[in-house]
Amino acid sequence: MARLDILKTYKIYIGGQFPRTESGRYYPLKGKDKTILANVCLSSRKDFRNAVVAARSAVAGWSSRSGFNRGQILYRIAEMLEGRKKQFISELILQGVAAPAAETEVNLSIDRLVYYAGWCDKYQALFGTINPVASSHFNFSVPEPMGVVAAIAPEDQSLLGMVTVIAPIIAGGNTCIVLASESKPLCAVTFAEVIHSSDVPAGVVNILTGSSAELHSHFASHMDINALVYYGNNAAQIKLMQEQASTSVKRMFVHAPATAKDPKAQGPYQIMDVQEIKTTWHPIEQIGPGKAGY
Amino acid sequence: MKKTNGSPEASTLSTAWDYTPSPESTEHIHLEKQYELFIDGKFVKPGAGKYFDTINPATEQKIASVAEADEKDVNKAVQAARKAYDKVWSRMPAAERAKYIYRIARMIQERSREFAVIESMDGGKPIRESRDIDVPLAANHFFYYAGWADKLEYAFPNRKPNSLGVAGQIIPWNFPLLMAAWKIAPALATGNTVVLKPAETTPLTALKLAELIRDSGLPDGVVNIITGAGKTGAAIVGHPDINKIAFTGSTDVGKLIQKTLAGTSKKLTLELGGKAANIIFEDAPIDQAVEGIINGIFFNQGHVCCAGSRLFVQEGIADTVIRKLKARMESLIVGDPLDKNTDIGAINSKGQLETINRYIEIGKNEGAEIHQSSCTLPGKGYFCKPTLFLNASQSHRIVQEEIFGPVLTIQTFRTVEEVIEKANNIPYGLSAGVWTDKGSKIFNLTSRLRAGVIWANTYNKFDPTSPFGGYKESGFGREGGLHGLQPYLKF
Questions:
Q1: What are the structural domain ranges in chain B?
Q2: Does the pLDDT value for residue B84 go beyond 60?
Q3: Which residue, among B295, B463, B474, B490, would best test binding to A if mutated, counting the most A CBs under 10 Å from its CB?
Q4: Is residue A17 part of a domain?
Q5: pLDDT higher than 50, residue B112
Q6: Range B34-272+472-490: architecture per CATH
Q7: Would the pLDDT of B412 be above 80?
Q8: Which pLDDT does position A291 carry in this prediction?
Q9: pLDDT score of B17 more than 90
Q10: Total of domains in chain A
Q11: What distances in angstroms separate CA A76 from CA A180, A194, A195, A198, one per listed residue?
Q12: Residue A1 falls within a domain, yes or no?
């Protein structure tokens, strides 16, 4: 008698744990031959709010890690992903991606993580400045993470889209809540397992599955979110989110859905989108002989 | 500049020293009776023929009539800016663009005293501030950004910057000329053209700047300055042919603008309200800190978005700091903005004075303990005594909301953790101040306070090279410095 396969239960990822949605609702994800691949959590507003609490409480710890340490952890994510490459390729194929394209997507995702790992301790030097003020003050500006970022991942790339969204947000010391692709959620959930085993502190990355039609407005109206990242081209959703973002002056960044595939979809400017610039002043004492020290 | 009579600290002195009035002359300035709209290099009458009065808040006297731009006038200004962008400004070599901006900077320097006097007459700020801070900083801002015009590709590694087109800019009444400079200079340096609206209570220095820009030979339509109130501003925000909106003002209006722009491709920067914590530790240089507190809250009558309006004093020195603060407040001279001895001038408008007085009532009703300077206020004009609220608590409205006047709330704290928590527990995040002699404590605080500008052992300092702007509900985007270029460019 043939052995019965063990099917995986795909759950969401909040605060370093894998709960089922509190809503108790799900949607069936079907493969090419109409067989049911998984019952996927239809996350609710309450799940999102729980994720915000987890993300907020993780900001202080994550943002105060050194850039070097964050870089090592992003690199660790890449290592873990490399080790589970086959699983991701087969999940992508299950979700309808052709085999060669699936392998390319996983490779690109790993490389993108390594790319951002390298940025973690470098963008500050490129985008920070020492400002030569005319008065007797030492004055400098540095990038600082905005805090909690809510993101809607691209619909058409289950894994690469997720990586493209998450890596620059966390490389810069922010924490995030990401809504996975609705039609291709499997890799996103499995990617949470990779995150979970990569020394990423609980709450830094939170991944929900479900419907962006249901959740986008909650993402935009939540008062404890600092910024929104949106991959997609649904003009009505974008407009509504931008309107609701104004209730707490959230910053919102919209990307066309195809850009995640583009090699130009990565760069320090994606990190800088979700950074604030802080300027600090301190007086310089002007006592003692002129030109002393020269 | 200390007047010592009445101060408990000075009670040992046997003689009271009074200052003789020393008003700045107004004879050399030139003002029209009526101001038109500056569109396409010319002063033109508003289509609907409507005008409003701008008054001197220190005397309640009318200074001039000022045109009110309606939607059609806004459209004319935008068309002029678009034409100037397409035909002239975007095609001009960047180094030539720079020379026009340098010329504007130089002309402001040449006419600085006239600008300072008019600024104080129209807005009520002491001449000492308009003369030494507002006007020189405005000129310096043009001078600084002029130099960027032909160096933009060095500012953004691996990217090619391009101008946006027409920028619509709306500025507040607290630093009328300086805010115009903060808006116009980077916009021109990055190759954009401008439609600027000054605030309705303080339009005169912007209109004088329009005259100066006309005289400078800047090509017609590159800068258009139109006057009016909220409706004029809304027409700018809503105009379909504007590529960028830059707004400085209240958080409420900022949110409305952000909402209005939803679904459009217009770029936006917002510089909004604040409620800065000014934090004094036991190991601070106390006399310097007291000066910093005074400057933090009473600079420009407290009409400053980054004013240090929430004072946090560590418990052990609270009595000393409050005693010295009260003594120093007594020495502040409140009165004629044009008098060179004046520390605190007139509140900008009747409406703003009413707002401040309403908050003072709220503070009393909330149970905070009020203390005001014993100074006498002039009989005419809009004035407010320097005011402290002791024993304020975190949930008080006077602690949570921006008052935009010379009103300081005082809270005490014990630990670093506690004060960081309290300082950050507010929707605003524009600025903050820290006073301590311990370097590592400064960096702990400056990195954990959630605000865009942090002054350590100093307060309310500004410079064209230094980026300014907020976190959270204090807005987004930066003005000043290298970071001030990005909001006016696309890549």
A1: 34-272+472-490, 277-456
A2: yes
A3: B463
A4: no
A5: yes
A6: 3-Layer(aba) Sandwich (3.40)
A7: yes
A8: 59
A9: no
A10: 1
A11: 22, 9, 9, 5
A12: no
Architecture of domain B277-456: 3-Layer(aba) Sandwich (3.40)
| Binary contact (B467, A242; C-beta < 8 A) | no
**A249 and B256: CB-CB below 8 Å?**
no
Average pLDDT of the residues in A155-169: 95
Identify the active-site residue in B36, B114, B119, B271.
Answer: B271
Residue type, A81: L
Let me know if B260 is exposed, middle or buried by CB neighbors in 10 A (0-12, 13-18, 19+).
middle
**Calpha distance B180→B122 (Å, rounded):** 15
Three-state SS letters, A168-191? HHHHCCCEEEEECCCCCCHHHHHH
The residue among A126, A226, A246, A252 with the most chain B CBs within 10 A of its CB, best to mutate, is A246
Question: Are B483 and A277 in contact (CB < 8 Å)?
Answer: yes
Task: Report the C-alpha gap between A84 and A82 in whole angstroms.
Answer: 5
Q: Does residue B4 have a pLDDT over 60?
A: no
In this structure, is residue A53 part of a structural domain? yes
Q: Could you confirm whether B306 is annotated as catalytic?
A: no
Q: Is A278 in Cβ contact with B453 (below 8 Å)?
A: yes
Residue A5 domain-assigned (yes or no)? no
Q: What is the CATH number of the domain that holds A220?
A: 3.40.605.10
In the residue annotation, B271 being an active-site residue is answered as yes
Task: Give A-chain residues touching B453 at CB under 8 angstroms.
Answer: 278-281
pTM exceeds 0.90, yes or no: yes
A277 inside 8 A of chain B by CB: yes
Q: How far, in Å, CA of B477 to CA of B152, rounded? A: 17
For B4-12, what is the mean pLDDT? 50
Q: Find which of A133, A228, A278 to mutate to test the B interface (most B CBs within 10 Å of its CB).
A: A278
What phi and psi values does residue B196 have, to the nearest 5 degrees? -115, 135
pLDDT digits over A186-222, tens only?
999 999 999 999 999 999 999 999 999 999 999 999 9
* Residue A278 near chain B (CB below 8 Å): yes
Domain span holding position A217 = 37-282
What does the pLDDT read at residue B13? 56
Q: Report the complex ipTM.
A: 0.95
Q: Which of B259, B263, B450 sits opposite A238 (nearest CB)?
A: B263
Using 50, 70 and 90 to split pLDDT, how confident is the model at B259? Answer: very high
CA distance B85 to B75: 15
Rounded Cα distance between B20 and A153, Å, is 69
Q: How far apart are CA B218 and CA A107, in angstroms?
A: 55
Which tokens go with A155? 């619909």
